[in-house]
Specification:
Blueprint (H helix, E strand, L loop, with lengths): L1 H7 L12 H12 L2 H14 L5 H15 L6 H14 L4 H16 L8 H8 L6 E5 L5 E5 L6 H12 L7 E7 L2 E4 L6 H15 L13 E7 L11 H17 L7 H16 L9 H4 L14 H14 L5 H12 L8 E6 L9 E7 L2 E5 L1
Helix pairs in contact: 1-2, 2-3, 3-4, 4-6, 4-7, 5-6, 10-14, 11-13, 11-14
Length: 371
């Protein structure tokens, strides 16, 4: 109760309101102990009834907005809480928003963690819509609306619809924070997962020391995670935005066993993706070989010979657009046993028959050891 008063400015506090210290103190215990939830609802409603101090009332509604997105009251109190919201709607715009958030929380279940700093700062800045930037493998990004009750699965669905994907099975959200990139489980509330990750990093003291506040230093990516259901050409948008750009680095690092003939075709297709029909860049091919040819076979031909054969292959495919070039690129890779693999560079010391440095490729066909 004292933390509520401190947040509302009705009790002296040394904790700054722009962090999550006070909101954590208010919401952590009710989230962990169900009987306390009705108590917090009642306390906050009491503080918002006949409150003559504008700033205090304003901050109290901020807390109500955060609470209704975090956990619901009991069914026995629900009618009274909704009545309170209806009475306040005439003069308090957030009352309707809180009622809607409460209904969604009743449907979707409670959060595991107190509100994330992003949510706290949003409502403190009078924003009830939170837009989150999501990055894609083709170096593009878009902003998507996400709220306190958004599950990762719902977030993925919204992204898939906006991008025109035929489905999001096998795709996942990934959160990059400090030097960690971790997939968000479909069933988790998005902000719960980010909060969990930041708390874990703080407790284990991982990440660079200069990251003063890991709450604010994360990025969200959306990528293909599972490849077992991928059929190249079935979903052109998925191929062009995700599959091409996720597979290209694996090729250039030499992870696949790539025949020279395929390497030439693949390099010509990459050139078309980058430059279209612009042949003025042919002269730069020798300097660009590391960006076009797998590093483990570059030495098989002189640079000028690579250029000659790549140009010849390019000229044979005149008329293809960049999208077609990406799909043709993937169709060549899809013939290989290691297509769609997750690769791991490992150092082994238990099996003397194997080299010390190994590449492990995991895909739908099993586990491959590559020397």
């Amino acid at each position: 109760f004292q933390a509520i008063l401190k947040y509302m400015g009705d009790y002296p506090s040394k904790k700054i309101r722009c962090s999550t210290d006070l909101t954590d103190a208010i919401f952590e215990h009710p989230l962990a102990h169900e009987p306390l939830r009705d108590e917090v609802y009642c306390q906050l409603i009491k503080q918002l009834t006949d409150n003559k101090t504008r700033i205090s009332e304003e901050r109290g509604w901020e807390l109500m907005w955060l609470m209704t997105g975090s956990f619901a009251c009991s069914q026995s109190l629900l009618k009274e809480v909704n009545t309170f919201f209806r009475v306040k709607m005439a003069r308090q715009p957030l009352a309707s928003e809180c009622q809607n958030r409460l209904a969604k929380t009743v449907r979707n279940g409670q959060r595991k963690y107190p509100p994330h700093l992003v949510e706290v700062e949003a409502i403190q800045n009078k924003k009830t819509s939170i837009y989150h930037k999501v990055y894609f493998p083709d170096d593009s990004d878009q902003a998507f609306e996400v709220d306190s009750g958004t599950h990762a699965k719902d977030f993925c669905g919204s992204i898939g619809t906006r991008l025109g994907l035929k489905g999001v099975e096998g795709f996942s959200l990934f959160v990059k924070i400090a030097d960690k990139v971790i997939s968000v489980p479909d069933g988790d509330f998005f902000f719960d997962f980010v909060r969990h990750l930041t708390e874990w990093l703080k407790k284990t003291k991982q990440g660079p020391k200069e990251v003063a506040n890991p709450n604010l230093t994360y990025q969200v990516f959306f990528m293909r995670k599972l490849w077992s259901t991928v059929t190249v050409g079935k979903d052109p948008n998925a191929d062009c935005i995700f599959h091409y750009h996720q597979e290209l680095p694996k090729l250039l690092r030499g992870y696949h066993k790539c025949p020279r003939e395929d390497a030439i075709q693949l390099a010509a297709l990459q050139f078309r993706v980058r430059f279209g029909e612009d042949k003025s860049q042919f002269g730069n091919i020798p300097a660009m070989l590391k960006e076009l040819v797998p590093h483990d076979i570059i030495s098989e031909l002189p640079a000028e010979e690579w250029k000659k054969q790549i140009v010849a292959a390019f000229n044979k495919s005149t008329g293809k657009n960049k999208q077609e070039a990406k799909i043709n690129f993937l169709k060549i890779l899809a013939r290989w046993a290691t297509f769609g693999s997750a690769f791991f560079e490992v150092k082994q010391s238990t099996e003397p028959k194997y080299p010390e440095q190994l590449l492990i490729a995991i895909n739908k066909n099993g586990v491959n050891l590559i020397d």
